[in-house]
Amino acid sequence: MITSTFWILLTGSLAAASCALVGSFLVLRKQSMMGDAISHAVLPGIAIAFLLTSSRNTFPMLLGAGAFGLITVYFTEFLHKRGRLLHDTSMGIVFTSLFAFGVILISLYAAQVDLDQECVLYGEIAYIPWDLWIWNGLNMGPRPVWILGLVLVLNLAFVGFFYKELKVYAFSPEYAASLGIPVGLVHYGLMGSVSFSTIASFESVGAILVVALLIVPPATAYLLTEKLKPMLILAMATGVLSAVSGYYLALFLNASIAGSIAVMTGVFFLGAYLFSPSDGVLTRRYRKTDALPEPDEFAVL
Amino acid sequence: MSNKIPPIEVHDLTVAYRKKPVLWDIDFDVPEGKLIAVVGPNGAGKSTLIKTIMGLIDPVSGKILVYGKPVDRERPRIAYVPQRESVDWDFPISVYELVLMGRYSHLKLFHRPGSNDRRIATEALEKVGMSAYANRQISQLSGGQQQRVFLARALAQQADIYLMDEPLAGVDAATEATIFELLRVLRDEGKTVLVVHHDLQTVSGNFDWVMLLNLRLVSFGPVEEVFTAENLQKAYGGRLNILTQVVELAREKSFVRESGHE
Amino acid sequence: MNELLNILQYMDDPNARYVLTGTFLLGLSAGVLGCFAILRRRALVGDAVAHAVLPGVCLAFIIVGDKDPFALLIGSMVFGWISMIVMDAIVRNTRLSTDAAIGMVLSVFFGLGVVLLTYIQSTGNVNQSGLDAFLFGNAASLMPGDVQVFGTLSVIILITVAVSYKEMKMVSFDPDFAKSIGYPVKRIEFLIATLMVMTITVGLQAVGVVLMASMLIIPAAAGRYWTESLGIMMIIAAGVGALSGVGGTVISGLAPAMPTGPWIVVTALFLFLISFMFAPKRGEVIRKVRNMRNRVRIQDENVLKTIYLLQEQDGLDGKVRSLRDILKRRRMNIRKTRSSLGRLITGGFIDLVPGKPGGYLLTEKGRARAMRLVRVHRLWELYLTSQVQIAGDHVHDDAESMEHLITPEIEEQLTSLLGRPDTDPHRRKIPYGETTTEGGLL
Q1: Angle at CA B98, nearest 5°, toward B92 and B103?
Q2: CATH number assigned to the domain comprising residue C334
Q3: Do C311 and C218 reside in the same domain of the chain?
Q4: Any idea where the domains of chain B sit in the sequence?
Q5: B85: distance to nearest CA of chain C, Å?
Q6: d(CA C247, CA C269)
Q7: CATH code of the domain in which A154 resides
Q8: How many angstroms separate the CA atoms of B32 and B30, rounded?
Q9: Which of A120, A102, A94 lies closest to A48 in space, CA to CA?
Q10: B-contacting residues in C 10-49 (Cβ below 8 Å)
Q11: C47 and C108 co-located in one domain
Q12: Is A298 contained in some domain?
C-alpha cells in the first residue's frame, strides 16, 4: 500500500521539476513575470473548459489553459507595440483583466463550475491522493500524478529536442534570428510549455505558488552556476528539494503545503544569495571585494 | 582668490562596476574657462568619470573637489547633461517643462518656479534655437532636437561648470555646428565645459584641451600638445593590454584599495 | 427602468454608500499613484507588493489577536517595505533581472502569507473569519471604520502628491539629473513607494491581491492616451480609477453573490479600451482614420495629376480623357480610381463630360491643384539632385510621396533656394501657374 504522503511528495516533486525546467528559460530570457501572467490568465480557460464539458476532464482544461496562455502572450505583445505601452504595463493590464474575467465566469456559473477562489490561489495538494484515476476498473493512482508526469515528459522532450535553439534564444533572440532559428516558434513553444506546466501544477499548488516553482529554483541555480545544463539540473533539484522539505514544514506547522513549498524555495534562494561560491553576498564580503560600489540605476525602489 | 582654485580637482580616483575596475587611479586638475573634450574607446570610463564627478556613482577610492569643496556644497555651480538615451522620451511633459527643470537647481524643495525662472528657461530655449518647439511634447523631437533641449536645460541652470555626456551623439551636421557654437559661447563667457566626445575628427579646432582616457588617464592637456598620434595609440591601441592585465591581476588578488565607502 | 430603480434602491442603503465611498476613494488614489508606477517602469512592483503584504497582515493579527484595521495597516506597511528592500537587494547584489526579483518576492512572500493564514485558521481563533478578505477582496464587507481609514489615506496621498508634484515629476523623469542638482532622490523615491504601499494596503480589502495591480496600472495607462501632460494624465487616471470603483461596485451590487473586485477591473478595462481606441491623437481608431484619409487623398491627387500629365504630354488642353487613358498612363486599381474620380467631380476638380467618347476634363481649380503637385514634385527632384547630391535616377520615388506632403511654406523656401528654376533634372518644364498655393487640401 502506497501512502498518501508518497503521492503528495511525488506530485509536488513532479510539478517542481516541470516548472523549474521551463522556468529556467523564462529567468534567462528576463521574462519571469510572463510566468506570473500566464498562471493567472489561464483561469478563464479553465472555467470555459469546465462550462463546456461540465467535468474536470483534463484535456479540455489543458487546451483551454494553453489557449489562454498564448492569448496572454499575444495581447501583451499587441498592447506593447500598438498601444505604445511598456512591456510590463501591457502585461499587467492583460493578465489581471483575464483573471478578473475568470473570477466573474466562476461566480456566474458557480453551480456548474466546481472551482473556488481559494483553490485557484493556493491549490489543494493535500487532496491529491483521493483524486484517483480509475481505468478499466483498475486503480491507477492519483490522476494529477499522471498528468504532471506527462507534462514533465513533454517538457523534457521539448527542451531536449530544441536544446540548441533554446540555448541561443535564451542568450539573445536577435542573434538566434540571425542564425535562422525560428524565434517566434521557439518563443511560443516555450510559452506553451509554461502554460501546460502551469495548468498541470495549478490544481495542486495554485496560481501564485506556481510562480514560485517557475522562478525561484531557476534563480537559485542561476546564482550557483554560469552554464546552462548544470543550471537546468540544479534548478530541478532545488525545486524537488523545496517540494519535499515544504511538505514536512507544512506538517510541522499544520499549515498550507503549497505555501510551505513556496517558502522553502525562498529559503534555498536565500542560501544561494548569501553563500553562493561565486555570487554570494557573504562570500564576496569574506573575500573583501565587497567595497566595490553597485550601480544605482537598477534599483527597484 | 577663488580663481586660483581649479574648478574640478580629481585625486587618485578609482571606480569599479560589479567588481571590475572602470577607472583606475585617475588624477588631474581641470583648468578654468576651457572647452575640454574627453575621448577614449568604448568602455574607457568616460561617462563613468563625469557621473562620478557629479556624485552619481560612488568611487572605490579617491577625492573629487569642485571649487575646492565636495560637489554637494557647490551643486548650483555645476550643470550636468546626461546621455540622451538615459531618459524615457515618451514621458508626458513638454519641451518647456523639461527646460524649466534646469531651474530646479536654484529652487528650494516644494517651491514653485517664479517668473524669473520662466524667463531664463525661455531664453535658454532661444539660445539653442528651439523656441518654436516650447509647447511640443518631447516624444515628437528628433535626436538632434532632444540634444538641444537637454543643452537648454543645462543652460537654464546658469552654472559655472558644464559636464556633458555625448551631447553630439546622433545629431545631424547642422545641429553639430549649432552645438559647437554654443559650447564656444559658453567658454567665451568664462565657463568651464567638459564634453564626452566620440568623434576624433572634430576634436582639433573645436576644443581647447583634450583628455585621453582608457581606464586610466593617458594624457590631458592643450589639444595641440596632447592630441598626438602617439597618445592616441596609447589610448586606443594595443599597448594598454599590459595595463589591463595588471588591473585584472590586482582585481583577482582583491587588491582594490578600500575607502570610507560603506 | 427596473434596473435604474434597483440602482437607486442600492444607493439608498447606507452600507452600500460606505462601500461606494470606499471604492471611489481607492480608485482615486490608485489612479494617481499608478501614473508614477507605470512611468517609472515599475508597473509590476505594485503587484509584488500587493502579494507581499499578506504575511504582514497575518503577523499583525497574530500579535494583536483581532482584526484591528490600524494594526493590520501597520503590519502590511512593514511588509510592503520589506518586500521592496528585498527586491532592491536582489537586483543590486546579483545578476538576476528586475522581473525575476519581482516574481520571486511576489510568490515567496505570498507563500509565507498563505502559511501564516492557514496556521491561524488551524489554531481556531474565532476572530480570524474575514481575514481572507485581504486575499480576494470583499468590498461588500467594508465597515464605516474601514472607509474612514480609506478616506484619511486618500487625503494624505492626494495632498502629498500635490505638494511634491514638481519633485516627483523630476525624479520619475530623470533621476540622474535630479541627483546632479542635489535632489534627495532616495527620499523622494521612498515617499512615492510609501504612498504606493499605503494605497495597496487599502485596496487589498476591496479588490484582493491579484487585482490590486490592475487598480494601479489600468487607469494610469488609460490616462496616458488622452494627454501629453503629466498633471492632466494624473487627473484623468484618478477619474478613470474612481469611475471604475463606483461602476464596478454598482454592477456587482445588482446581482447577488457577484464579486466586486473583478467588476471594478472589468469597468476599468472598458474605460481603458475606450481610451486606447478613441483618444484623440494617440487613439487607435483616430490613427486608423487619419491614415485612411491620407491614403484617399494621395490616391485622389495621383488621379488628378495623371490627367494633367496626359494633357502635358500631348498638349491638348480641352481633350476629354477616359478612364482607360488614365489607367494607361499610370497603373492604378480600377475600383479605387473610379471612386477617386467620383470624389474629384464632387470636389469640383474635374468635370464629367457625357457623350461618345465621354470622359473627364480638368476644371480650372483641378488644373491649378494638379499643376502644384507636379511643380512640387519637380522642385523636390531638383532639390535632391542639386543640393543633396542624390543621383537623378533615384529621386523620383521620393518625390512621388513628398509631393503630397510638402506645405506651401516649404514650397516657397524650395522655390527661392533654387532660384525659381525652369526645368527639373529630367529637363521637364516646372509649371508655375498664376497662383502658387491654390487648391491645397481637400
Answers
A1: 145
A2: 1.10.10
A3: no
A4: 2-252
A5: 11
A6: 12
A7: 1.10.3470.10
A8: 7
A9: A102
A10: 39, 41
A11: yes
A12: no
Give CA torsion, residues B233, B237, B242, B248, to 10 deg: 120
Alpha carbons within 13 angstroms on the beta-carbon side of residue C36 total: 29
Alpha-carbon distance of C231 to B153, in angstroms, equals 20
Question: Is residue B260 over pLDDT 50?
Answer: no
Q: For chain B, which chains pass the contact test of at least 3 CB pairs under 8 Å?
A: A, C
CATH no. for residue C239? 1.10.3470.10
Helix, strand or coil, per DSSP, at residue C81: helix
Q: How far apart are alpha carbons C113 and C209 in whole angstroms?
A: 11
Residue A299 lies in a domain: no
- Can you give the pLDDT at residue C420? 84
Does C155 lie in the same domain as C241?
A: yes
Range name among A252-256, C272-276, C394-398 with the lowest pLDDT average: C394-398
Helix, strand, or coil here: A283? helix
**C177 and C258 housed in the same domain:** yes
pLDDT of residue A230: 94
Q: What is the pLDDT of residue C440?
A: 42
- CB of A270 within 8 Å of a chain C CB? The answer is no
* Assigned CATH class of B2-252: alpha beta
Residue-range definition of the domain harbouring residue C347: 286-362
Sign of the C-alpha dihedral computed for residues C199, C201, C206 and C208 taken in this order:
positive
pLDDT at A118 (0 to 100): 66
Whole-prediction pTM: 0.84
Residue C256's pLDDT band (cuts 50, 70, 90)? confident
State whether C99 and C202 are in the same domain.
yes
Domain that holds residue A266: 4-284
Distance CA(C252)–CA(C327), nearest Å, equals: 61
Q: CB contact, 8 Å: A104 with chain C? A: yes
Contact C175, B88 (CB under 8 A): no
| A&C contacts, CB < 8 Å | 231
In this structure, are C114 and C98 located in the same domain?
yes
Q: Are residues C314 and C249 located together in one domain of the fold?
A: no
* Number of folded domains that form chain A: 1
Residue B126 one-letter amino acid: E
Amino acid at C297: R
pLDDT at A117: 64
Under the banding of pLDDT at 50, 70 and 90, the label for residue A59 is confident
Q: Report the percentage of chain A scoring pLDDT > 70.
A: 85
Residue whose C-alpha cell is 513553444: A189
- Element (H or E) spanning B127, and its range? helix B115-127
- Residue A299 contacts C, CB cutoff 8 Å: yes
Considering only CB atoms, which chain B residues are within 8 Å of C179? 54-56
C154 has a pLDDT exceeding 50: yes
Residue B185's alpha-carbon distances to A111, B128, B167, B189, B206, in angstroms, are 78, 12, 16, 6, 12
Sort strands C350-353 and C359-362 into parallel, antiparallel or unpaired: antiparallel
Neighbouring subunits of A (3+ Cβ pairs under 8 A): B, C
Show the DSSP H helices in C230-363 as ranges: 230-254, 260-278, 284-314, 323-329, 334-346
Pairing of strands B209-214, B192-196: unpaired
CA atoms within 13 A on the CB side of B73: 7
**Model confidence at C310, in pLDDT bands (50, 70, 90)?**
confident
Pick from B17, B254, B262: CB nearest A287: B254
- Report yes or no on A300 lying in a domain: no
Question: Domain tally for chain C?
Answer: 2
Per-residue DSSP letters for C180-241? HTT--HHHHHHHHHHHHHHHHHHHHHHHHHHHHHHHHHHHHHHHHTT-S-HHHHHHHHHHHH
Give the residue from chain C lying closest to B82, CA to CA.
Answer: C177
Q: Does a structural domain hold residue A67? A: yes
